[in-house]
UniProtKB/TrEMBL annotation:
Keywords associated with the record: Oxidoreductase
GO CC list: membrane
SUPFAM superfamilies: NAD(P)-binding Rossmann-fold domains (SSF51735)
GO molecular function, a single term: oxidoreductase activity
One Pfam family, short name: adh_short
Species this chain originates from: Mycolicibacterium fallax
Domain Ketoreductase: 12-193
Coiled coil: none
Protein name: Ketoacyl reductase
Family: Belongs to the short-chain dehydrogenases/reductases (SDR) family.
Alphabetical list of InterPro entries matching this protein: KR_dom (IPR057326), NAD(P)-bd_dom_sf (IPR036291), Sc_DH/Rdtase_CS (IPR020904), SDR_fam (IPR002347)
């Protein structure tokens, strides 16, 4: 599996490109010569990034200010993507909430499911028929190590990322031989605005610097893995250890351990 060749007409789409891993994915794709469609709610940030990337790399960069949790806005974007030559889709936008589910804002929890799972499904379904017809395309899905294990104190997020992880790995096998690839990016802690959005004040103190990965390193590992047709990319030693413990520790053991961990960080 290799990535489709960038052309003046095709596009790489990055959701959640206004910050963190998504901004770094956009940068990495522009450096590789891809013209882009950048998606997030903060269109002003996307425009600043678009101007910088087109000046630095000579690519065309389009901006779509879109709330992917809003079904009408998302449908408009999905319809547009279905009608265009999309070479690469990076389904990356997402956020988390922490705390016991019964205490959390039900609307924000539902928004999380809509963004982290339903939007990933929707946009993938929009671009997939075109990719399969062209026998070329690549889909990156940003899941998480949180999706490998139960998340008491982080239940909605863990469940949405379990969807993302399983969906990506299922598709990857389903698409074998079609010329279309699908890779899961399943990071552990990455320094971005993620913690601020989730209102996590203690995470920084709990985890030493050495355990964090930069957004740039996570994005580069993801794009290298996508180009190689890798099933799953897990950037950094800590995330690799989390993956093994999350997948192989008995649920009855890891559940209470993670409950204690999440209580410390919230
Ligand atoms: N950082 C970590 O430790 C970590 C670990 C594992 C997995 N991840 C995953 O990595 C992905 C990227 O997160 P990040 O760490 O880069 O966090 P981030 O810096 O907070 O970026 C999140 C991006 O998602 C966008 N977004 C949020 N809500 C949206 C909505 N309703 N519609 C459209 N876009 C929306 C944000 O843009 P706007 O606010 O402008 O809309 C922003 O561009 C997420 O899926 C996250 O779950 C992160």
């Amino acid at each position: 599996m290799s990535l489709p060749t960038p052309t003046p007409g095709n596009r790489a789409v990055v959701t959640g490109a206004s910050s963190g891993i998504g901004a770094a994915l956009a940068e990495g794709l522009a450096r590789r010569g891809y013209s882009l469609i950048l998606v997030a709610r903060r269109a002003d940030r996307l425009r600043t990034l678009a101007d910088r990337l087109s000046a630095a790399h000579g690519v065309t960069v389009e901006v779509r200010g879109c709330d992917l949790g809003d079904r009408d806005q998302r449908r408009q974007l999905a319809d547009e993507l279905a009608s265009r030559d999309i070479a690469i889709l990076c389904n990356n936008a997402g956020f988390a909430s922490y705390g016991d589910l019964a205490q959390l804002d039900p609307e924000r929890e539902a928004d999380q499911v809509e963004l982290n799972s339903v939007a990933v499904h929707h946009l993938t379904l929009a671009v997939l028929p075109g990719m399969v017809q062209r026998n070329a395309g690549a889909i990156l899905i940003t899941g998480s190590t949180a999706g490998n294990q139960p998340g008491p104190g982080n239940a909605t997020y863990a469940a949405t990322k379990a969807f993302a992880n399983t969906f990506a790995e299922s598709l990857r096998t389903e698409l074998s031989g079609t010329g279309v690839g699908c890779t899961l990016l399943a990071p552990g802690p990455v320094r971005t605005e993620f913690g601020d959005v989730a209102e996590l004040s203690n995470l920084d103190k709990l985890l030493p610097d050495a355990l964090w990965v930069t957004a740039e390193d996570a994005a580069e590992a993801a794009l290298a893995g996508l180009a190689k047709g890798k099933r799953r990319v897990v950037p950094g030693a800590f995330a690799k250890a989390q993956t093994v413990s999350g997948q192989y520790t008995p649920r009855a053991v890891i559940g209470p351990v993670l409950r204690a961990v999440y209580r410390k960080i919230t």
